[in-house]
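Thread: sanity check for a docking pose with zinc ion

Original post by kr_44:
Hi all, I'm comparing my docking run against an independent structure prediction. Below are the sequence and the ligand SMILES. Could someone generate the full complex and paste the structure tokens? I mainly care about where the ligand ends up relative to the chain.
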Amino acid sequence: MASKEGKRDLADDSSTAASTTAPRETGAGTATTHDVKSASHASGGRGLGTLDALLEECGRLHGHMCAGQLLGARMAVVGCREVGIEDPRGADRKKLVVWVEIDRCMADAVGAVTGVRLGKRSLKYFDYGKVAATFLNTETNMAVRVVALEESRALADARHLEIESKKERQFKTYREASDEELFKVERVAVEYKETDAPGRPLSRVRCARCGEGVNDGREVRGGDGLTLCRPCASGGYYRRL
Ligand SMILES: [Zn+2]
Ligand SMILES: [Zn+2]
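Reply from moderator J.T.:
Ran it for you. Here is the predicted complex with zinc ion included:
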């Protein structure tokens, strides 16, 4: 489903300017995206696989290829690497939880690359409007937050001025740029309780006002001591008509 532009850029692999910057203090892994790529070639495609293969998967899930997919795919590669997740859709699939901070193209790419899903509770969504995601290895409790740098936008405008299409220019730049040019990576601690984890619901109560069931401790205690769902207690995203 890749667009014409996407296809052309995907085919052009001559520009893989591998990052030679020093390893980050945040991670044991020092491989660049392109090292991941060649390493997985050498090992017969285990683990994350090539960036091209990842993008193909992204395009299939998302319905089109775009710069956001590329950014999200690279973000996922960095996030997994930094928390020591090698095979998020295979051997490590039960170890990874990801929080995304925006509901745009990038979120689909993170899901496609890592296999995390809202319905499996391995994907969490916070509506911060930021191109950012946090990756948690639940086995080691190591977490990093990866944020797309504002500077990366300017980068896409400044490079490859010979390319007329903004979309194509963006795609090529996001493909070539080093991880450091695109992302800020920070070590974080995230609140992740048993009631946030996959598996059977640990509790279920009924809201004293609307009578609807509430799983996993998401209820709140109202001022009058009543057990309430969040929308009844403090207003929700909808309004009954
Ligand atoms: Zn898109
Ligand atoms: Zn209620």
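The CA atoms of residues 37 and 228 lie 50 Å apart. Hope that helps with the comparison, let us know if your pose agrees.
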